Backbone:
C-alpha cells in the first residue's frame, strides 16, 4: 500500500504563486510515476502534471509554462509549483501514484483545495 498526503493549498490572488507538496509513504518500490490531478466544481477530474521515475514530465496544455512538477527522492515528495495563477485554476488538487504502469493511477491522496480569487 501507498499513502499520499498533500499540503500547500490555500487562497491566492490571481497572478500569485502556490506550491503543493505530496508526501508518499509505504510500499514505494513499484511506483513508476506520480502526478497531480484537479477537479473543479461541476467538472470532471483532469490531469494537471505527471512525473515518471525517469524524470519525464507531462503537463496539461492549460498549465504548461506556468506550473512545474518536480520530485525530491530522498524525501519521497513530489511538488507542484504553480505560478501566474488564474481563477480557472481553482479546484481540489489530488496527488496520485501509479504502481501498475500505463498511467493507471491506483493511489490517491485526499486532496487539497486551491482557490484563486480574481
Residues:
Amino acid at each position: 500500500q501507498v499513502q499520499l498526503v498533500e499540503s500547500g493549498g490555500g487562497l491566492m490572488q490571481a497572478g500569485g504563486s502556490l506550491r503543493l507538496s505530496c508526501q508518499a509513504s509505504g510500499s514505494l518500490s513499484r511506483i513508476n510515476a506520480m502526478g497531480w490531478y484537479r477537479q473543479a466544481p461541476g467538472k470532471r477530474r483532469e490531469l494537471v502534471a505527471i512525473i515518471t521515475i525517469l524524470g519525464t514530465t507531462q503537463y496539461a496544455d492549460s498549465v504548461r509554462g506556468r506550473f512545474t512538477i518536480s520530485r525530491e527522492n530522498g524525501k519521497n515528495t513530489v511538488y507542484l509549483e504553480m505560478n501566474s495563477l488564474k481563477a480557472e485554476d481553482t479546484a481540489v488538487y489530488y496527488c496520485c501514484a501509479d504502481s501498475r504502469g500505463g498511467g493507471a493511477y491506483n493511489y490517491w491522496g485526499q486532496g487539497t483545495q486551491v482557490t484563486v480569487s480574481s
In short: The chain is about 0% helix and 55% strand.
